[in-house]
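Hi everyone,

Forwarding the result from last night's run.
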Amino acid sequence: MKLLLPFFLAVILFSCSEDDTPCSFQTLGEAIYLSKGQLRSNIQLTEPREIERPGGLYYKDGYLYVLELGETTYWYEEEVSENKKEVIYHPEIDKTGIHIIDNRIPENPQNVGFITIPGVNGMAAKGNQ
């Protein structure tokens, strides 16, 4: 233990840089807030689709629920009038959601649907719900 203290002290002292190179920052995007109603209106059950970027997995009553992680969620603000902007969502280009797979016959699983959920990046289950 006594030998580790000088080692860590040396690492800390010699890891400091005297280079005054300025850091640069890049803004990648802005947070856009939606009301609960706006978000809920964009959640919908659609036709099954291929699993491209699987995330979490949940199994309940013979059904598999597989999270689909999208690369990004596409939102933009559109100016409606001089003082009002409206948040617009494009479900056709957002790929996030949950796949529903009927696995009651494990030898022949059936992809039965896809729940589109804008911006979802995780899922959890509580109790028997």
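The longest strand covers residues 54-60.

Cheers,
N.
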